[in-house]
Request: fold
Amino acid sequence: MDLEKLLADRLAQAFSAVAGEPVDPVVRRSQHADYQSDAALSLARRLGRPPRDIATEVLGRVELADLCSAVEVSGPGFINLTVADPALGILLSRMAADTRLGVAVSAAPETVVVDYSAPNVAKEMHVGHLRSTVIGDAAVRLLEWLGHRVIKANHLGDWGTPFGMLIEHLLDLGEAEAAHELSVGDLDSFYKAARAKFDADDTFKERARRRVVALQGGDELTLRLWRLLVAESEKYFLTVYDQLDVLLTERDFYGESYYNDMLAPVTGELDRLGLLRDSGDAACVFPEGFTGRDGQPLPIIVRKRDGGYGYAATDLAAIRHRTRDLGATRLLYVVGLPQRQHFEMVYAVARQAGWLSPPAVAEHIGFGSILGPDGRMLRSRAGGSIKLVGLLDEAVTRAADLARQKNPDLPEAAVADVARAVGIGAVKYADLSTDRIKDYVFDWQRMLSLDGNTAPYLQYAHARIRSIFRRSGIEQFTAGPISIGHPAEHALALELVNFGTVVTVVEQTLEFHRLAGYLHTLAATFSGFYEHCPVLRATGEVRDSRLALCDLTARVLHRGLYLLGITTPDRM
Reply:
């Protein structure tokens, strides 16, 4: 049901026959026709022939009569393709009858580990955690829907030197009081109080250092108190994930501590492979191709002089575990762009060690920053980090006000549901509709607008379609044959059959702004269709066909927004 692939496959055979070798026909949507191929232009120099001659010969060899109503050579050698309305009707009828909307489950499913979110124990989640969590969640949803085995790995910061001071502060407060303070979600105050003591009190600092040694040595009391800190923090994280409506659960927490027992074997294996070098202060690996500003090789610190391990050791242990023990062939690290070099160095070492070898690949799914109106990193008015819970609460409150303004008759219980869907959806979509490698400005007015490329616009388009069926009195709609006749129907059909192509591209690139952009174009195209093609006032087969087009559009919007982690209310 992938129309672009159907056209490309037919043209590829003809091009290959002309060129005497495999040729990518480079089929894409065009402003001059429905689709266009420009492969003849790139072939011209190789074959020593005018591109128009090549294109003309290709058209003489290709069979497109069942798919296209017009095929022509244009300009210097472009092949323009106009899809026939009957062909679109057949493709859409099949798509409407398919619960998966024409998108097949992957023929070669992989085991994929998605490493994302990664908050720190005893610290509140702030706006800096938003992008990793939202992008990672979208990756999980998309890959699971396509049939891959997806392992969600929430790499918690739950180990290391800060826990000495945190456990000592817990003891000073008393376990009951500390547990209460943590349970109400005031993690920042807890952490800041411990830090203040550590900085101001040498006695407390010494206690904290001894406590770190006890923790790393497996002292029973220290481990129990550490588990209390972790457990209360995880409860808080889960409330945030529930509010944000993402798929992470308690089963997905894989803290740094999870890999502790793997660090010594990893270090030993690196040593046996001859990769570990003593730099004086630490045992390091120097991956090839990475140098500092002074031209000297850059190290990955594996083990420090005091016997402690660097962050890279944990990352290497995670790769080794994920490929060897979990059988993962695709490792996705949804982490900000500033960490790119660190992860590229870790991947390089893992490849040298043989832990990351074909078919396994590791990908840094990097992303930019969230900026305030001043173009700087988004901060609170006091200059600190904005708590994620506070930001999400404000989104829901603003969306509730908007719902009451737009639909004063909406019951208050419905307002609450719509406000959560629209508010949280607006925050997610503002993130995912931006090319992830770019920064974006956080703008309440724009992201909650019912116009433009926003979640509320798409959610309203979906709700508007569902209202058509309520007005029609049809409670359970079953789509029949779809026929295309009007130009607005033709335009909508082209967008609908493009859904599978977009999903396939995003599966590989994880560039979710492409899916968001597609959904916005689909909704805008539906608006044109609805304006020019009466639905409920039509009669007979035309009415049934247009209702089927409406239903299919709503289903694609619903599925597409779900893959972005966004809810689609039936009423707004």
Residues 40 and 410 are 58 Å apart (CA to CA). The first strand starts at residue 27 and ends at 29.
